[in-house]
Amino acid sequence: xxxxxxxxxxxxxxxxxxxxxxxxxxxxxxxxxxxxxxxxxxxxxxxxxxxxxxxxxxxxxxxxxxxxxxxxxxxxxxxxxxxxxxxxxxxxxxxxxxxxxxxxxxxxxxxxxxxxxxxxxxxxxxxxxxxxxxxxxxxxxxxxxxxxxxxxxxxxxxxxxxxxxxxxxxxxxxxxxxxxxxxxxxxxxxxxxxxxxxxxxxxxxxxxxxxxxxxxxxxxxxxxxxxxxxxxxxxxxxxxxxxxxxxxxxxxxxxxxxxxxxxxxxxxxxxxxxxxxxxxxxxxxxxxxxxxxxxxxxxxxxxxxxxxxxxxxxxxxxxxxxxxxxxxxxxxxxxxxxxxxxxxxxxxxxxxxxxxxxxxxxxxxxxxxxxxxxxxxxxxxxxxxxxxxxxxxxxxxxxxxxxxxxxxxxxxxxxxxxxxxxxxxxxxxxxxxxxxxxxxxxxxxxxxxxxxxxxxxxxxxxxxxxxxxxxxxxxxxxxxxxxxxxxxxxxxxxxxxxxxxxxxxxxxxxxxxxxxxxxxxxxxxxxxxxxxxxxxxxxxxxxxxxxxxxxxxxxxxx
Length: 558
Hints:
- By secondary structure, the protein is α+β, with helices and mostly antiparallel strands.
- The protein has three domains: 19-236 and 390-443, BirA Bifunctional Protein, domain 2, CATH 3.30.930; 253-371, YbaK/aminoacyl-tRNA synthetase-associated domain (YbaK protein, Alpha-Beta Complex); 460-557, 3-Layer(aba) Sandwich (Rossmann fold), CATH 3.40.50.800.
- The strands form eight sheets. Strands 3, 7, 8, 9, 10, 11, 12, 21 and 24 form a nine-stranded mixed beta sheet that branches.
- It is an enzyme of class 6 (ligase).
């Protein structure tokens, strides 16, 4: 492709609203342009990279036995009403009406639609397993689109759905998808970790997120310093290493003047929180240096949602007075984090506002159960017993879910087993943010000059630059090389523009193609300069060996 008539509108300055590197570089290098908040057009360079990501995804998904289809972006609201997600999904779901005043949604995800397709066609265990996928634009009305392609209102996604007749079958395809995702992200040259995660509004129980390590990530990963353990910080379990203290219990004491005994009140301080879990009100105790984990609370009580309550709201929910809401009221059921087991002669400011020392939870409270209710912290022992927990920021680039019968039961997607008994289909779903992968690769592969594309995703493999297009020797050799490289089926971008050499080199660094071939002063000697974008290494090469050198360097870089 000749750059003189190729649509690559590069920018010298960083756009004011571009906060992170990938957003800045993709705009500056002419890979995309913003049309509205969270909505982008992919220009030719960006479109090529997207297609390369999609090709890798298709290749690995097809190897895994998946079948590609394409579903509509516009979905009838009736399907979402069947699962209850029309209301549950919230304001992020883009809704619209047609001319007949019928409700539709722009697809944020396709669980309902794919389930409706399968329930009409698969009615026997003999027709399963089935694994279907699509690559399509999705829509979510983000309250605050930010970070370019990392959080937009329109994005490209690969979503896959599996259908099985047994738990064993679902487990098998789930594990196959985990390995498939590893292969995809490795081919995209991403530094990532699969982590245990929460399923959120999608539903289901078992799920893993694939997190690319990056300082601009919106999620925190907790991982072991010595093993492969990794989990979203909200899902990482905390080892129960706590034992009851052997310290002699002292008599509970009301602190008349909290200011004068501030030091005593900080010792082994107990923190409490009231929560509403669906229609139940519970009180949770944690150590003051720990933070209660609402996701763990939700899972422990098998609740659809949890909400912290003020003491006034808790009293109303429990139908007691504020005075009777005291944690020392044995009528109030209390749950405690495992760390509370080790508290002896602790301190507490009760829900009534009174402060106490020599608090011993087992003696003084009605503890219904101890469990893991807190957020894991750096330095905690790794849940697998190997090493300590370390935190890192991550960008979610993919997620796999075991949905089970969450959708098949509510939408009546059933099959007849080998005994002729009707059962709900077991489902899984598996997503990759294609456009998010594009941005994440740039976050991990760049330097101060611009993007540094890995070979597998680069829009072109070779950037051929004629230093002086008015010099006949340089022009003639450049044209000859352009023809030779094209004939070898090597993707090449030929900068034949009438621009200064500095502009050409700057644009080349910005765009980030792996190999640069510079036709300059030694053109009349049949010698060109080869420069490797990733390392900055450069060396002179005679024209008659250029293809051999290109292939050798691509092999090294791959």
